[in-house]
Each structure stands twice: as structure tokens, then as C-alpha cells.
Amino acid sequence: MYSLPSHALEFERLDLQHGILTSTFGGLAIAPEIREALQMPACKVLDVGCGSGTWIKSVSLSHPHSECHACDVASVDSFEGFRVSFRQADVSHRLPYDDASFDVVQMRFLILALRIEQWPAALREIKRVLKPGGYAQLLEPDGEIRSSNRVVMGDKTILWNAYGPLEAIRAKGGDPNAARDLGKLVSATPPLDIVFEAHLPVSMSRSDTQLYGRAMTTNYASLIRLLAPAYAQYANVTPEAYVEMCDAMLDESDGTDAHNLMAGVVARRRA
């Protein structure tokens, strides 16, 4: 399912993506409950699907009292010099941690990694490793390019929504609606209770200076170039044509209110 490489260029993109997310949600914690939990003495934190590890590294630096752990399906060797314990693991299977181990667990951007039937299993694993009273922080991109005025949405954007990454995710067995339905997925995983949910816009116009449009479009263009070799077949085009479709959509979106939505959910495990 997962089609992105583990190399320096992808880690640079993930670092840029981290900056967009923290700017959009106002920090490492997307809700007051997470901020308060991270302030606890000896707070035990896990970053699931950590990628380059930027989030958990930042937690280790800003909260030196915390005990920081990270896991990912790929081997990550970028934690040298950080107080982070890394283990290679797949959240859709059993994680190598004891029950009720963590005060805070984060998982984000697994829409490209999990098959539709794996989402419930992944959330059950997060629930399992959370302490009673602990919090899960989940973030996912909606993926659809939106506009407040769909009547004037350009043809290239409509084409991209139909044949871009969401179609590839569906064809590969993933859940293209994972971000939209994130709250429903969490609510179906008792005893996790949602305490915060938001769907915030991030501009897809590179000239937008208010909603991080330049950073978002740079990140998005880099992502599509990495995905094109695996995803182009689902649009029945070559990888080169797939990239051209993306660039045409970005050109068309510039100067408009085109945007993507970032879904954020915080849930508490009942004591």
C-alpha cells in the first residue's frame, strides 16, 4: 500500500509537511488536552508512523522531562543525538509495546499506508497502548482540492480530483475518505472518546500568504513526483503525464481560494 521511499529527499518533504501542520494547528499539540498531557512529569509519548521523526524529536526538545518513543514500518536512523527510542513496527499488526504504556500517542498521514480494513486494527492498537486517561492525537489530509465556489472550480482541478491520489488510494485498497471519516472511525473504537475534532483549510494557491499556500504547494508537488511512478497507472497515464496533471491543477489553483482540509482528532481513553 505505502509507495513513498525512505531517503533524504522524502525526509526533507516530511519536515516541510510537519511545519505546515504545526502552523495550521498552532503547535505540536492540536488541542489543550494534548498540551496539558505533555506537561506532565515523565509523560510517556509515542509517535506511530513517525517518518523522519520531526514531531517526536520536537517533543523531546521542548519537553525534556518526557520519555519519547517512535515506530515506523521503515527503518529510521535519524534519531542520533535525540532522546527518542525507535522500533521498527507496523501499527496494523501488534506494536512492540505493553498494554497501557503511553500518556500520549500520535499517528498522522497514514492515509497512504493503511488499507481500508486496517484502520480499525490500527486504532485498536493505539487504544491498547494508551494508558487509561491517556490521549491519542490523529491527523490526516482530506486530499480533495476544494473551493468555496464549486461552480467556478477549473476543469484541471476537477480532473485531478477524479484521477489524482484519491483514486489511486481507492484502487490500491486504501480509504480515500479516512480524513473525512476520522471522527467516525475513532468513535467506533471504544473506549476512545473524542474531545476535539477540526477540519482546517490549507491553501492550494502558491501566492496565498495567509494559509501557507507556498509551502503547501511546494510540498504537494514534491509528494506527487514521488508518488507518480506508483500512482500514474490508476489514471491510465505515464508518470510524466501524471506530474503534468498535478502541475496544471496547481497553476489553475493559483490566485483562487482552492484548498485542502486537514482533519485533526484528539481522543481520550476512558479510565
Automatic annotation (TrEMBL):
Residues 45-134 form the Methyltransferase domain. The keyword Transferase applies. GO terms for biological process: methylation. The keyword Repeat does not apply. It holds the Pfam family Methyltransf_25. Coiled coil: none annotated. Keywords: Methyltransferase, Transferase. InterPro entries: Methyltransf_25, SAM-dependent_MTases_sf. One of its GO terms (molecular function) is methyltransferase activity. This is S-adenosyl-L-methionine-dependent methyltransferase.
